[in-house]
UniProtKB/TrEMBL annotation:
Upper taxonomic lineage: Bacteria, Bacillati, Actinomycetota, Actinomycetes, Streptosporangiales
Top EC class of this enzyme: hydrolase
Catalytic reactions of this protein: Hydrolysis of terminal, non-reducing alpha-D-galactose residues in alpha-D-galactosides, including galactose oligosaccharides, galactomannans and galactolipids
Residue span(s) of domain Glycosyl hydrolase family 36 N-terminal: 29-250
Organism, as annotated: Microbispora maris
UniProt keyword annotations, A-Z: Glycosidase, Hydrolase
Pfam families linked to this entry: Glyco_hydro_36C, Glyco_hydro_36N, Melibiase
Protein name: Alpha-galactosidase
Family: Belongs to the glycosyl hydrolase.
Record domain Glycosyl hydrolase family 36 C-terminal: where: 612-688
GO molecular function, one term: alpha-galactosidase activity
Length: 691
């Protein structure tokens, strides 16, 4: 709900349990008076009467309180809007010129006092979510303007006793590892300059006062819905004011805004919660299931991917043998990975030639697809359509289609170059090619990969942002033309995970590291913002192909059950006993899958302890599932009970496996004591049904 108090020049934006209050002060600056628990309009109206900070020489008392920040005057902090006019002027003097408002959307318009540039601030709220969605629109009606920076939103936090920043860090094979640190004074910047979201960081941040835990404390967070380069600035001023500002693009990349042109920034969403990091995560998960994902009510199938079994050695008979093994253990979606197309018998050729290899598939993909469907499974293909190998028919025909700069070498990485989707002819080719592939073959699923960052892209933002907008447009067109096809976003693992790509895909590949122990940490950080419903997690062979670590089959399955279960091992080499046990574990997952993919998640014990655990609870409270993992058991200490969350203390719960009855109050106070096997890397699934 959005309410306007015209007399006091303030707006109250409210969700079910929080409010964000904007106010135009006496100098026509847009200030944030409140972000926190829900307020009535009358309560919000009293905020301008609160005492203001005392005057300080050479400082602006409004700094750190402004919702719309632009360069100019005594403002020296991070400015969300930074421009350079044709005459060299950099300062902006914005004055309010109007508003448009509904119960769900607010648009506040500002214009420069002299130059014909306007800035629109857009705000969106939902009746069933406390997430606020924001973006800016810059319009130029005069001489060309250079946009140096245009963040989507600046979030103003209230004063707190301390400030702790939560984010994720990583690299290839080690993405989304949670990092918490006290916020230093000055500007703390996280960014990607790679053209994709990146493995190294992710465009979200959370702030608390340093005392919040998993289930207690206030948390302020924001997330950028953008799949290209980005920048997020957490600013802490000496006056103990803190802001979060996020937007597309990175330093040195600018945008020329010509006469009559406009720049629309991507959405930056913000959220206040009280209830710790767990409550913040559950609110973000719920919001994505309600308002971001294209098919939130669907249940994602159990997947098999052939890559680790075959590599580039792809053949019709080999894939059919794998498919038959996969069907035997209960797999629902069979995905052929790299090596099915063009001259792709190794990683230096074929990218860009998206037609079946005639030697490997002399009759096309039809016989394989038909057999997979006969086995009762859906059929999927791996593609990497934004890339091209120099050794390909596409590159030989269109060498100018790749991102490059005159007089600079074309940097190859993984023997490939990046196609410039910002060029309309390239984006059109990409859509036509994939549209034809899907029209001629009964493909149900695409694993859409993107394995390298941009190089030689230059300083013009039109390429950096144009590539992402074109990618979004191609995905939107393909989904409209082939509504039954589902898509997984992959970028050498978790290199492109964000709210922008999730609006157009059904799941993401969280990491190429499939080591179960490493995955506990990766998945812990991933679910801080993103729901298990989109997190692809595989069971692969032991020793793990990346780390060489040996772990039991049950442990690998129980880790992967925490998301969208996939299997990537060489099934033709598994013993009958392993296949039989895998079938039992797949059946276990299918029973708890509605809880994992559509329920509420509780991170009970973090992965850095000897014992870690995560709980999933049905929205109606009728059943709950707990996945427990033991890294190691030291000194022979007895393991503590795993205390559950959010159960009815007066209810009784039956263990589906043992039949034992548990009292809700005891589960909350003392927990469950799963029957873990002796030794390292033990695990258990506890599935409780409310009586």
């Amino acid at each position: 709900m959005i309410v306007h108090d015209s007399e006091r020049r303030l707006w109250v934006l409210s969700g079910p349990s929080s409010s964000y209050v904007l106010h135009l002060d006496d100098h026509d600056r847009l200030r944030v008076l409140h972000w926190g628990p829900r307020l009535t309009v009358a309560q919000a109206a009293s905020l301008p009467l609160l005492p203001r900070p005392p005057f300080r020489p050479v400082e602006d008392a409004a700094e750190g309180t402004l919702d719309l920040t632009a360069t100019g005057g005594l403002f020296y902090g991070h400015a969300a809007v930074q421009v350079r006019f044709a005459d060299g002027t950099r300062d902006l003097e914005l004055v309010p010129t109007g508003q448009r408002r509904t119960d769900r959307e607010l648009v506040l318009t500002f214009a420069d006092r002299h130059y014909p540039l306007t800035v629109e601030c857009h705000y969106g709220v939902h009746e069933d979510s406390d997430v606020i969605e924001r973006h800016l629109v810059l319009r130029n009606e005069g001489e060309p303007v250079t946009v140096v920076r245009a963040d989507s939103a600046t979030w103003v936090l209230p004063r707190m006793d301390g400030y702790r920043l939560s984010s994720v860090r990583g690299q290839w094979g080690a993405e989304t590892r949670l990092h918490r640190t006290m916020l230093p004074y000055g500007e703390t910047v996280t960014t990607s300059r790679r053209g994709v979201t990146s493995h190294q960081a992710n465009p979200w941040a959370m702030i608390d006062d340093g005392t919040a835990g998993e289930e207690h404390g206030e948390v302020y967070s924001c997330a950028l819905a953008w799949s290209g380069s980005w920048r997020l600035t957490a600013q802490r001023l000496p006056t103990e004011r803190v802001t979060l500002s996020a937007g597309a693009g990175h330093d040195s990349v600018t945008r020329e805004l010509g006469v009559g042109e406009e720049l629309v920034t991507p959405v930056c969403a913000g959220l206040y919660t009280d209830g710790g990091f767990g409550a913040a995560s559950r609110a973000w998960h719920d919001h994505q299931l309600r308002h971001v994902l294209p098919h939130p009510g669907e249940t994602r199938p159990v997947l098999y991917n052939s890559w680790e079994a075959t590599g580039f050695d792809v053949s019709l008979d080999g894939q059919i043998k794998l498919a038959e093994k996969a069907a035997r253990i209960g797999v629902e979606l069979f995905v052929v990975d790299d090596g099915w197309f063009g001259a792709r018998t190794h990683d230096a050729a074929g990218l860009g030639d998206w037609h079946p290899n005639p030697r490997r598939f002399p009759d096309g993909l039809g016989p394989l697809i038909d057999r997979v469907h006969e086995l009762g499974m859906l059929f999927g293909l791996w593609v990497e359509p934004e890339m091209v190998n120099p050794d390909s028919d596409l590159y030989r025909a269109h060498p100018d289609w790749v991102i490059h700069r005159p007089h600079r070498r074309r940097t190859e990485h993984r023997n490939q170059l990046v196609l410039d989707l910002s060029r309309p002819e390239v984006a059109d080719w990409l859509f036509r090619t994939l549209d034809e592939l899907l029209a001629k073959n009964a493909v149900d699923f695409l694993k859409w990969d993107m394995n390298r960052p941009f190089t030689e892209a230059g300083p013009d933002e039109r390429l950096w942002t144009g590539h992402v907008h074109a990618l979004y447009a191609v995905l939107d067109r393909l989904r409209a033309a082939h509504p039954h096809v589902r898509v997984e976003s992959c970028s050498s693992g978790g290199g492109r995970v964000d709210l922008g790509i999730l609006r157009r895909t059904d799941q993401v590949w969280a990491s190429d590291d499939t080591d179960a122990l490493d995955r506990l940490e990766i998945q812990h950080g991933f679910t801080q913002l993103y729901p298990a419903r989109v997190m692809g997690a595989w069971v692969t062979d032991s020793p793990n192909p990346y780390t060489g670590r040996e772990t039991p089959l049950d442990f690998r399955f129980h880790v992967a059950m925490a998301g969208v279960l996939g299997i990537g091992g060489a099934l033709t080499e598994w013993s009958d006993a392993e296949l039989e046990r895998a079938a039992e574990l797949v059946a276990d997952y299918k029973r708890i899958r509605p809880l994992v993919q559509h329920g509420r998640q509780y991170r009970l014990l973090p992965p850095d302890r000897e014992l870690s655990a995560v709980q999933y609870l049905a929205l109606d409270g009728s059943e709950t599932a707990v996945l427990v993992h033991r890294r190691s058991r030291r000194f022979g200490h007895p393991e503590p009970g795993v205390r559950l969350r959010d159960l009815d203390p007066g209810a009784r719960y039956r263990d589906r496996s043992t039949g034992r009855i548990h009292h809700g109050a005891v589960l909350l106070a003392h927990g469950v004591f799963p029957d873990l096997a002796p030794g390292d890397y033990a695990s258990a699934l506890v599935h409780l049904i409310r009586e």
